[in-house]
Design a protein that fits this description.
With 158 residues, this protein is α+β, with helices and mostly antiparallel strands. The protein folds into two domains: 74 residues, no CATH class; 55 residues, no CATH class. The chain is built from three helices and seven strands. Bound molecules: flavin-adenine dinucleotide (FAD). Flavin-adenine dinucleotide (FAD) binds next to α2.
Length: 158
């Protein structure tokens, strides 16, 4: 979260740079930005340390390049957190287990589970009720792709 010495003269909706940097307005003169390293590393479960170099050397320069008014800003507060992450293809796993009967997956959303949850919930309800998908075919997200090493890549991750 940061304040800008010269706030923008118009509202800033969520804006995503191809690098994965994202920024949006969060208050009259304050903004929220986030990002991650090129390779998002595995960390210890209790590691919530902020990587200050990431902000200083990576996120802020990108931000100031994209929006020059953000060269003069003051960080107000910061937060580091964890994502559940499917390392095969950054995508959800849903549907039945291929070997264990009566075991269903609905996990591995890799940072984009909120937006997928309505469809995933409906698909899972359909599978449990009818034994198959009805509205949308969610089988590409199935567990088989994991055991067969067939990634179904999601690239639009921020
Ligand atoms: C900072 C942040 C920002 C995000 N922003 C977005 C966004 O803008 N858009 C978007 O689409 N997604 C976003 N996501 C991702 C989204 O929040 C997740 O993908 C989604 O919440 C995953 O839902 P889930 O039900 O699979 O897992 P979770 O929501 O993690 O639920 C798993 C539950 O299982 C419980 N649990 C764990 N172990 C056990 C156990 N042994 N016994 C019983 N219960 C257990 C946990 O307590 C938890 O309540 C964001 C995530 C984070 C962290």
């Amino acid at each position: 979260m940061f304040s800008a010495e010269t706030p923008l003269d118009r509202p800033l909706p969520l804006t995503i740079d191809p690098s994965g940097l994202h920024v949006r307005q969060d208050g009259a003169t304050t903004y929220m930005a986030g990002g991650h390293t090129e390779a998002d590393p595995t960390v210890e479960f209790d590691d919530f340390e902020m990587d200050h170099a990431l902000w200083q050397d990576h996120i802020w320069p990108l931000l100031a390049t994209r929006i020059p008014a953000f060269e003069a800003i003051k960080v107000q507060r910061e937060w580091a957190g964890h994502y559940d992450f499917n390392t095969l293809d950054q995508n959800a796993i849903t549907g039945p287990h291929s070997e264990v009967a009566n075991f269903f997956f609905l996990n591995g959303f890799s940072g984009h589970g909120l937006q997928q949850s309505p469809a995933m919930g409906r698909g899972t309800a359909e599978y449990l009720t009818y034994g198959g998908y009805r509205s949308l075919d969610l089988s590409p997200f199935g567990f088989d792709r994991i055991t067969q090493n067939r990634p179904f890549f999601e690239t639009a991750i921020i």
